[in-house]
Amino acid sequence: MCGRNSRRMSQEVVFKTVYQYSREPVSEADMGKLLEIAEDYRRVKNYVYRRYSGIGSLGKLWPGYTVQNEMTRSGLREELGMPSVYFYLAVFDALGDIKGQWARTKTVVEKNLRANQNLGPRERHYLRFVMKQDQCFRAILQGVEAELSGRWAEAFEEVRQGLDTRPLDQYLRRQVRRHLVQPRTEAAEGFSVPPKGYRYADHGIYLSVKEKHQRLFLPLTDSISYNRQLYVRLYPGEGRVVISAPVEVKPRRQEGYWNEIGLALGMRCLFVTDGGNAYGERFLEYQAALSDYIREKLPRHRRNARNNPGKKKYTARKARLEAALHTYVNGEINRMLEAEKPRAVYLPRLPGTSRAGVDHRINASVSRWQKGYVKNRLARKCLERSIEFAEVFGKGISSQCSGCGAEGEKQEDVFYCRVCGLKLPERQNTARNVLQRGREQEGGAGRQQHPAPEGRGPNDHR
Predict the structure, then answer these.
(1) What distance in Å separates the CA atoms of residue 243 and residue 247, rounded to the nearest whole number?
(2) Whether 40 contacts 80, CB under 8 Å
(3) pLDDT tens digits, residue range 12-44?
């Protein structure tokens, strides 16, 4: 986020997921028909992964119609007896996963490129150029000459002039081979369905199945109809179905939201505001429960992951702990926004994961800290409420005095400034600095000095 306009999130429309639930237990026969579609959906995706996730198929991924045509000619749909409404969605879902894997691979390679001390500025410039120019990138990975014309050909000649590009191309190929992972899905938990594959009626939904000219009826707990791509998730053990629908909603304009707040983010307490209010005091409890379970069970699970009969149990337990953590995070974010009523929220730009100290239990929690999820949910909920959300530069933000700007000292979670005498809880001081930096970068009120609070003890966080 660099620049005020880029930091302000668009408030024209918000996409959110709503859920519909089956009203009564789904019969074993009907669940079997849905599970058969889910299994075929999985098989089609894995087929696409195997065939098109490699370097040789890189040129077929955009826009994807070549893959669609080849999949049509493959005869797989006829072999499975799969309705076209599901078959082609599975194809394009798999293509989306492959494109995402390529994007992640490029991100890792670019990071390694920046960290490689053996590369000079010209070598880095050349590698960045070929990674951003799709034809060059594909040609180098496939070991052929790039077919460029016009100004692209001139620019390519310019960046490689005077360079021995062979070792650089080999380095790029090695990096890609090392980090490119073929996607694969083992679970047949559900499937996507386009509007042509369903019809709402009779207080439920009719879904296309493998029998021709037939649809399976599912009574629903509500009578709302949607006209968009849905995702049908199956819970055969419970005999129920959950349908996910993405919908557009306009952000709510909140009355009385006028304040600006800075936030310090942490594990022992999720948020502390510049005013000293704390939210998410039980966050570490939820995070530690998830981390402890993964740390204890994962090594045993990995030793025999393919044939492990407890794989589903491990995955289900992990999913429940993660869902509990996410529910708590969302609830605390809602509570904070409703209590603070901000028109703008500032958060320090989050650093990479680091060690927390000698406590291995805390270190395990830190290594799995879902800070990206916390930030994304905070940004999302701000967007839904028409609250401005911005990240600020975080370097040195916890050691700087929020009263005078001097370097201070921290002892037992309390911040002391020998210059102006400020004494505050450490995270409240950090949050005040966040607020000041947020105002400065937004071109608002500028650097505002907070008077040192009188009579504030080291444990007075609220």
Answers:
(1) 13
(2) yes
(3) 677 888 999 999 999 999 999 999 999 999 999
